[in-house]
Structure formats: C-alpha cells, structure tokens
Specification:
This protein has about 325 residues and is α/β, with parallel strands linked by helices. Helices cover about 35% and strands about 20% of the residues.
C-alpha cells in the first residue's frame, strides 16, 4: 500500500445508517457541520486573517480542522456505524468539501465505494491492539497500527471475518508476534552451543521429554564414531497399559547452521545411522538454520521413501520452542 494515514472518526447518535448509505455512494460525511457558515476552508481563512475569536461559538464548535488533512488513499474508520460496536472503513479519494443541505453532517469527503466494508470491532480477525483503538476516544483520532489494519483488510477480502474473538484467537495473535523472537533465540543457541555442544544440549533436553527412557550422545562433534547418529533417543510409545507399550529408537543428527539449510549431508548421516542401527524407527534432523531449502526437503523425502521410516526436521523457530518447553536447566535459569 502507498503512504497513508488511518483516521478514526466518531459516528453520531442519529443518522448512522445514513452515513453508511452515503459512504456506499462515494461520499463520507462528518458531524459538527450544523451551521451554514461552517465551511472549513472559509473558517480557516477567517482565522488566519482575523483570529480565532472572530468565529461564533457555533462556528468554533464546527471547526474540525482534521478534515482538511484528509488526502487521497487515507483511510477513515467510522466508529459505531451503522450501530454500536460496528465500524465501517472507507478509502479516501480526494480532499474535503462542504455542501450544506441537512441539519448536520455537512462536512464531506470523497471515498471509493468499492473500499467500504463494515466489521465488528470484536471480530476474531481484528487484532486486540487495533480493537482497543476502535473504542470511542473523542470526535476523531489517528490510528498508527498499519500492519494490524492491513491484516484486517486482507482478512475481510478473503472472507475470513465474521467470528467472535475468544481467548484462543487472542493467543493466535500472540503466537504470531512471538515467532520472530523464537528465530532470534535459535540463533543464540547456534552462537552459544556450536557443534558438539549442541548435541549435548539436545540430549539433555530429550531426557526431560515424557516417555523418554534415555538420550545419549554418540561420538564427538560429527566424528566417524557416531555412525551418523549424534544423539540416540529411546522412548516408549503406545497406551500406558501392559502389552500396549513398546520401545522405539530415534537417531538424531544435529547441525549448527546459519541462514538457509542447503547442505544435504545430514540426510546422508541419517541414512548411515539407519544402516548402523537397524533397530532405529525414526530419524530426526535438528538444525539451527532459519529455514529449509528445496534441496534438503527433497533429500529427506527421498530417504523416507527408500527407508520406509519417518524422517523429521526440527529447524528454525521450532528449535527454540523445543528447548524452551523441555530444557529444565534453561527454563530454571530464566525463572531465577
């Protein structure tokens, strides 16, 4: 989107449906325009030439100078239009103009009728921070939450609005905002635990997972002695009843990586581990890279097909989530 400003303006207690109908016809209307001499251009000129005191009390009340700031591509959100709790959005297409023909709402500005849409400010797709700014706060105010506003427009365009906000939907917003920080945490893990230190950290973390019987580091720092398995994890699966549980083995390959993970050596190492440990049921690659690549994904998929075993990839933000959830030493230090 181009540079623009988001304005919230107060709807009026009467004629709210008329405001919505007018917007859909391409004309925004604003209150405090109830005297015939309230044209803002004329009032501004009089103030500049003769001073504020020359305006009558009614003219002073009608002098809503913010409307003169409206420009093409700005957005206006009409609060409590067409009813309490609802908001109506419109994109401005030009400058303010005055036309006195009603008892009020004679301040006007052109809008794009195709841009007009109405939503509930407590909709699940309205970011909580934006929702808070959409509660009445005066005659007008500016909203600086562009990213949240654009997300709302996108959601409306896709037909995703229409559901009430819940604690769970608020948590979705929180998770999205935390995600970039998790990538930063994974980068810190890479910095503080390179190579063999990462293997030890992972083994210690696996030991705290429910159902894990043991987690052991094999070899040191990718030596040939590990036979492709940096860490071997033995865990129980199935229901907790006699005869319904069995032990499974996961071979883990740890890779200290920055940026995208393009190297497929980790997949070759997992394949080597399967050959050395035929009892292994699952292969897991843990990478501190920010993301995978097509080459790595294709290599993993090929090994899944040939080995007939699950091959999983833990990478980027998921590495941070894994440690924060299961590494008691780390969480203990964070809490102290």
């Amino acid at each position: 989107m181009s540079d623009y400003t988001i304005y919230a303006i107060k709807g009026v207690d009467r004629g709210q449906c008329d405001i919505l109908a007018s917007l859909k016809k391409g004309e925004g209307r604003y209150g405090w325009g109830y005297v015939q001499t309230a044209d803002l251009y004329q009032l501004k000129k009089r103030i500049e030439e003769s001073g504020w005191h020359t305006l009558t009390p009614e003219e002073q009340d009608c002098y809503q100078s913010v409307l003169l700031d409206f420009k093409k591509d700005d957005y206006v959100i009409c609060i409590n239009v067409p009813e309490w709790g609802k908001c109506t959005v419109a994109r401005v297409t030009g400058s303010y103009f005055w036309r006195f023909e009603d008892s009020d709402l004679n301040h006007r500005f052109p809008v794009d009728p195709e841009s007009v849409f109405t939503f509930d400010r407590n909709d699940a797709e309205v970011h909580p921070a934006l929702s808070a700014r959409l509660k009445l706060q005066g005659r007008y105010w500016r909203i600086y939450l562009r990213k949240e506003f654009e997300a709302l427009i996108e959601a409306f365009t896709k037909g995703a609005t229409g559901k009430s906000r819940t604690p769970e939907t608020n948590m979705v917003f929180l998770a999205k905002e935390i995600q970039p920080f998790l990538l930063d945490i994974t980068a810190k893990i890479h910095h503080s635990h390179p190579n063999f230190a990462l293997e030890t950290l992972l083994a210690d973390t696996f030991k705290n997972m429910p159902g894990v019987i043991k987690a052991e580091v094999h070899g040191r720092g990718g030596s040939a002695g590990d036979h492709g398995a940096d860490v071997i994890v033995v865990f129980e699966s199935g229901l907790p009843f006699p005869g319904l549980q069995r032990q499974q083995t996961c071979v883990v390959q740890a890779k200290s990586f920055e940026g995208e993970h393009w190297d497929t050596q980790a997949v070759a190492d997992i394949e080597r581990a399967f050959d050395r440990y035929p009892e292994a049921d699952i292969g897991l690659i843990v990478s501190t890279a920010t993301s995978s690549t097509e080459a790595l994904d294709e290599a993993i998929e090929k090994l899944r097909e040939t080995s007939k075993k699950p091959i999983l990839l833990l990478i980027g933000a998921d590495v941070a989530s894994f440690l924060l959830r299961y590494n008691r030493s780390l969480t203990g230090l964070l809490e102290s």
